[in-house]
Amino acid sequence: MYPIFKSGNWKVIGSLPLINFSYPKFISTYIDYQTKEHGSWYLIDEESDLKLGNELPSHYHNLEFKTYWPPEFIVDRIKTGKKPYEHLITTNIYSSEDDQSTTIQSK
Fold first, then answer.
1. Phi and psi based region of residue 92 (left: phi greater than 0; alpha: psi -120 to 50; beta: remaining)
2. Cα(57)–Cα(12) distance, rounded to whole angstroms?
3. Which helix (H) or strand (E) holds 31?
4. What's 36-86 look like in SS3?
5. To pair with 65 at 20 to 30 A between CA atoms, which of 7, 47, 80, 103?
């Protein structure tokens, strides 16, 4: 997280101890951006990666897609509420909507 503060757009305003923290679960898949095909879906938690298969079960659609974002994308996500790869997650098909979900929309 420290590179996020080097831009000068973010600053530490305090800290609180983590109490009863539970590591969240994430979903992920490999995406070939040239062919627009994706591989198996995975459920990722603190201890393991569980292969789910090529179709993401609907009860995992509410989980976050595990990815790394530059600081500008985090700000855009907060402003727009847009969930990255939402079309892929809900339809199992990568589309231009997913391309737009991984670019900055607001200014």
1. left
2. 38
3. strand 26-32
4. CEEEEEEEECCCCEEEEECCCCHHHCCCEECCCCCHHHHHHHHHHCCCCCH
5. 7
Q: Residue holding tokens 């995992």?
A: 60
Contact between 58 and 66 (Cβ < 8 Å): no
Query: Tell me: the pLDDT tens digits for 56-80?
Result: 999 999 999 998 777 778 888 888 8
Contact 84/77 with Cβ under 8 angstroms?
yes
Question: Contact, 43 vs 49, CB < 8 A?
Answer: yes
Q: Taken in order 18, 102, 1, 39, is the CA torsion positive or negative?
A: positive
| pLDDT single digits (tens) 11-55 | 888 899 989 988 899 999 988 888 888 899 999 998 889 999 999
